[in-house]
UniProtKB/TrEMBL annotation:
PANTHER family: PROTEIN LINES HOMOLOG 1, WINS1, 2 PROTEIN
Domain (Protein Lines N-terminal): residue spans on this chain: 428-542
Protein name from the UniProt record: Protein Lines C-terminal domain-containing protein
Signal peptide stretch: none
Taxonomic superkingdom: Eukaryota
Domain Protein Lines C-terminal: 581-616
Pfam families named in the record: LINES_C (PF14695), LINES_N (PF14694)
């Protein structure tokens, strides 16, 4: 299939479908007959474009085979390509009309028409990517049209559909693994977000929060009306979800010059966070317990967590996020983790949304999920203030570090009172109970589990015990807090608890390692933990301490027998050590076998070296 003038073909195809309907008055509110005809036409357009994409992909595959075979290929389109892409060319004008026609359909009062028009825009994007024809122009035009839609509907009810379209296009791009296309996408989206008059949007939401209903004429945004509460909530949900997807795709590099598309889009998203929190909070409070309220709370926390991984956030912003958590998610932070029992939410399996449970069970499970996100964001912000070398302004660093210390102290005191740390050496039953409950909280969401375990590895160990003495200096107070952190989150103890919660099943570890989603995180965690274990061998061998553990969770492969007598009663440390040893050595053997057969998804040599070192120490211990 010739791809040189694919834009003209797309325009003719879409124009034949759309033109006769746009000439009808009041087309924004079509009759059932018109809507039915339009839906049939749009469905045909969608199928035709999809068939073109398949043809283009097939031609590309054949061309690649010919090139690999050394055959010469003749491209008759090279001479005309530059002329086709000129902004004043017929192809560019066709692209403008094509995008304008499809975006215009997003304003129709028909959910089905909007859905199909959005799908066609996504397929148009895919066809241009496959053909290598004017995709850059397309995404810029689309973003500009959607910006105008936001301005003139300001921003509801149609503009949230545009964010969904951009999100679906981004999903397709992420599969292409083309950094140049992704940079163009991020640049276009950033330009759009920068041009939107957010002050008008803020005014609209302020008005909406005040009365929650449309004006008497039932009109929206720039036309003088106010959206309903439901419309506003849907818009916010779509917008926050879109930003989450964008931030997830960003490849952040600390040494960029500040003007790269990835840096600019992150900075713009961070700038929008205060407004988003302000707009969303009334929804979270007024619709508490509703599905949309849960969704908004979930997505806001996810967005902020992702930003902490992708960018160098100013300490003042981190402090403002900590204050937000204390003000609006205080219940999740204050909830005592030592009350978290095994199997408490074993139906979650990584998602906060499902329908197979009772309302009470759903609320409890969702609360556990939000608690995980809240605690993880709290730790990310606090640890950055406590341990990061990012801050260069000494005065700012000292002040923010002090505030970060204060927040961390309040949280630790609420979880484990200070007298716990002075009663029985460095490790006491209460502190280990807390560590066990902490791990259990995250066991049923694998992605969050490894995020938090890796985060806790940043805590430096304090070998000497610090007593709680009155009249000590600020430095002593800081050392006390840091000591408590290293006691509660000792990486060796957490690793022992982690293995115990898996019931020492090496197959679960293997599943983690070969997982597409969390394999890299699990490998990093095992590499770093095994090094620490080998350096702190005595602590590993002697865990658990007498009376320090209870029954473990049910995170295991289903083929195992549930709730064995040994697991229910806890184990003496010789048995726990033997189980941990057998688990890790079995893992080593399994990885070796898969690697020899070239079935392991990546090179595990570094991990195998750490496991071999662990095996050597086990042999010497015997």
């Amino acid at each position: 299939m010739a791809t040189g003038k694919i834009v003209s073909r797309l325009h003719l195809l879409i124009d034949r479908c759309v033109r006769r309907y746009t000439e009808i008055e009041e087309v924004s509110s079509p009759t059932k007959e018109i809507e039915k005809d339009l839906l049939l036409s749009l469905s045909q357009v969608l199928r035709e474009i999809q068939s073109w994409i398949n043809e283009i992909a097939s031609d590309s595959s054949e061309l690649k085979v010919q090139q690999e075979a050394g055959e010469k290929t003749i491209d008759h389109e090279d001479e005309t390509t530059a002329a086709l892409y000129d902004p004043e060319s017929e192809e560019y004008l066709c692209l403008e009309r094509l995008v304008a026609d499809l975006v215009g359909l997003l304003g129709m009062k028909s959910v089905h028409v909007k859905h199909l028009a959005g799908n066609i825009l996504v397929e148009v994007s895919e066809s241009l990517v496959e053909s290598g024809s004017q995709w850059d122009d397309f995404i810029r035009l689309l973003c500009e049209c959607l910006r105008l839609a936001v301005v003139y509907s300001c921003p509801i009810p149609d503009s949230e559909i545009g964010f969904g379209i951009l999100r679906n296009i981004l999903k397709r791009l992420s599969q292409e693994e083309n950094e140049e296309l992704l940079d163009v996408y991020l640049e276009s989206v950033n330009s759009t977000l920068a041009k939107i008059p957010w002050c008008r949007v803020d005014t609209l939401f302020s008005h909406q929060h005040g009365n929650g209903e449309r004006n008497s004429q039932g009109q929206n945004g720039a036309l003088g009306g106010t959206p309903t509460s439901e419309e506003a909530t849907v818009f916010l949900g779509n917008f926050v979800q879109f930003l989450c997807s964008v931030v997830q795709q960003v490849r952040f590099a600390e040494d960029n010059d500040g003007f790269e598309p990835t840096h600019l889009i992150l900075q713009k998203t961070i700038e929008l966070i205060p407004d988003l929190l302000c707009w969303c909070q009334p929804k979270l409070e007024s619709q508490s317990g509703s599905c949309m309220s849960r969704y908004l709370g979930h997505k806001l926390l996810v967005l902020m967590i992702r930003l902490t991984y992708q960018s160098n956030i100013k300490c003042t912003i981190l402090l403002s996020w900590l204050e937000y958590l204390q003000r609006h998610f205080q219940g999740f932070l204050q909830h005592t983790l030592t009350r978290f029992e095994p199997d408490q939410d074993n139906c979650l399996e990584g998602s906060p949304f499902f329908v197979s449970l009772s309302d009470r069970e759903v609320n409890e499970t969702h609360s556990n999920h939000l608690q995980r996100l809240t605690v993880l964001l709290f730790l990310r912000c606090s640890f950055t203030l406590l341990y990061s070398n990012r801050h260069t302004n000494k005065h700012c660093e000292f002040d923010c570090r002090k505030k970060g210390m204060e927040e961390m102290f309040k949280w630790i005191e609420g979880q484990v009172p200070g007298d716990t740390f002075s009663d029985h050496g460095t490790y006491t039953k209460k502190s280990v109970d807390f560590s066990t409950s902490f791990v259990r909280l995250f066991m049923h969401e694998d992605d969050l589990l490894f995020k938090v375990l890796l985060q806790l590895l940043s805590i430096p160990l304090h070998e000497k015990e610090l007593l709680n003495v009155e009249g000590h200096s600020l430095q002593d107070e800081e050392q006390t807090i840091l000591f408590r952190l290293s006691t509660l989150f000792n990486p060796v103890i957490l690793f022992c608890i982690f293995l115990s919660e898996l019931h020492y099943d090496h197959q679960v570890l293997l599943d983690y390692l070969i997982s597409k989603d969390i394999g890299a995180s699990c490998a990093e965690y095992l590499l770093r933990c095994l090094r620490t274990v080998c350096d702190s061998w005595t602590v590993f061998v002697e865990f658990p301490f007498e009376g320090s553990t209870n029954a473990s969770s049910s995170k295991r492969r289903k083929v195992l027998t549930e709730n064995s007598e040994v697991e229910q009663n806890g184990k003496l440390h010789p048995q726990a050590f033997e189980d941990a040893k057998d688990c890790l050595i079995s893992l080593q053997n399994s990885v070796v076998k898969l690697h020899q057969k070239k079935l392991f998804p990546y090179n595990p040599e570094a991990l195998l070296r750490r496991l071999s070192r662990f095996q050597e120490l086990c042999l010497s211990h015997e």
